[in-house]
Specification:
It is a single chain. With 349 residues, the protein is of the alpha/beta class. The chain has helices spanning 21-27, 65-69, 176-183, 219-231, 253-262, 285-292, 307-319; strands at residues 2-7, 12-15, 45-50, 52-54, 72-74, 79-80, 84-88, 102-114, 119-126, 138-143, 148-154, 165-170, 190-197, 210-215, 238-244, 266-272, 281-282, 300-305, 327-331, 346-348. The chain has three domains: 2-97, Beta-grasp domain (Ubiquitin-like (UB roll)), CATH 3.10.20.30; 102-197, Translation factors (Elongation Factor Tu (Ef-tu), domain 3), CATH 2.40.30.10; 210-331, Rossmann fold, CATH 3.40.50.80. The chain contains seven helices and 20 strands. A six-stranded antiparallel beta sheet has the order 11-10-13-8-9-12, with helices on one face. Helix 6 packs parallel to helix 7 (307-319). Residues 102-203 form the FAD-binding FR-type domain. Keywords: 2Fe-2S, Iron, Iron-sulfur, Metal-binding.
Length: 349
């Protein structure tokens, strides 16, 4: 059994042979940022100070050759080879802490609802104990036997006593898992779900106005975060901007109107990019943002959607004064498995 030591805290985590560094840290409750679990996003990039590890197959856009030479690695794919691996991550007290994920938890699909022509909402109930998670986290769902490899999907609801979790899954062209979800899964099916994962959770102690920006099924983690905040009577203004191509691509508008009616501090502002409709904003969020929020220096900002959407919204928010320590992002990557391996899997620091 290898050990992973966190610098500067000095905390140690045991790593079972075959486990990735990310997996070992999550089992111990440590919140190393991550989005894709496939070596594609670069969120879990850290510097390895001492020790050897097998980096596995990752994309050059997520970990450049120069970064590899400097000792950096992607912990979602890295597996320790030496008895001890020392990584530069965390604070002196090694916070934040998360709920350790559990693998292959059994859930029953209780309902499926077509939210848009391409987005399907699935509702699952646990067979055993409810999954403990923070709003904004995600799970993996799939069935290898059916040709549907596990993929990452954000939970779209805040934790509930009955343990129900809601996933909103977009049909992806040539996406094996999304096609399986849309075409095969039916109410009553028992599936295996693993999680929770991810650190798109913000800081519950922060008391600032909140701006959420989402596109497509990027709305899912935003819904979970917003529901949780409103449930605990969050008093500062909460604004949710949602970008859709046409009115047919807008969904959960009824829930948004309910939240607006019940919570005076909640504002729902959808914007359309492909058509104009009376009463709705028109244009991409980065373009309309300055007219809505001339100053974001005191806001907590949450952005979820495709990587290009996230990058554009973050740049627009920063231009309006948003602070990096109050910006939280969740970028959704395609379902393709990385195919490009680095010249050498063995990295020594």
């Amino acid at each position: 059994m290898q050990k992973i030591r966190l610098h500067p805290s000095g905390r140690e985590v045991e790593c079972t042979p075959g486990d990735t560094v990310l997996g070992a840290l999550e089992k111990a409750g440590y919140a190393l940022p991550n989005n894709c679990r496939a070596g594609a996003c670069g969120e879990c990039k850290v510097k390895v100070l001492t020790g050897q590890f097998d980096q596995g197959m990752v994309l050059d856009m997520a970990l450049s050759q120069e970064e590899r030479k400097q000792g950096y690695g992607l912990m979602c794919m890295a597996k320790p080879l030496s008895a001890e691996l020392v990584i530069e991550w965390g604070t002196e007290d090694a916070k934040p802490k998360l709920f350790p994920p559990r693998e292959d938890q059994r859930f029953v699909l209780t309902d499926r609802i077509a939210r848009t022509p391409r987005i399907l909402e699935l509702r699952f109930r646990p067979v055993g104990q409810p999954m403990r998670y923070w709003p904004g986290q995600y799970v993996t769902l799939g069935d290898e036997r059916a040709g549907a490899p596990p993929r990452c999907y954000s939970i779209a609801n805040a934790p509930r006593p009955d343990g129900e979790i809601v996933l909103q899954i977009t049909r992806v062209e040539d996406g094996q898992t999304s096609q399986w979800v849309h075409d095969t899964l039916k109410p009553g099916d028992v599936v295996k779900i693993s999680g929770p994962y991810g650190t798109f959770i913000g800081d519950p102690s922060v008391d600032t106005p909140v701006l959420c920006m989402a596109a497509g099924s990027g709305l899912a983690p935003i819904l979970s975060l917003t529901e949780a905040a409103l449930r605990r009577a969050y008093r500062k203004p909460v604004t949710l901007l949602f970008s859709a191509r046409t009115a047919a691509d807008l969904y959960d508008s009824g829930l948004m109107k309910y939240w607006e009616t019940r919570h005076r501090n909640f504002i729902w502002r959808p914007t359309l990019t492909g058509e104009t409709r009376e009463g709705l904003l028109h244009g991409r969020i980065p373009a309309v943002l300055p007219d809505l929020f001339p100053d974001l220096s005191k806001h907590s900002v949450f952005v979820a959607g495709s990587p290009d959407f996230v990058a554009a919204c973050v740049a627009a928010a920063r231009a309006l004064g948003a602070r990096d320590d109050l910006i939280h992002t969740e970028g959704y990557f395609g379902q393709a498995i990385p195919q490009t391996a680095p010249p050498s899997h063995l990295v020594a620091a």
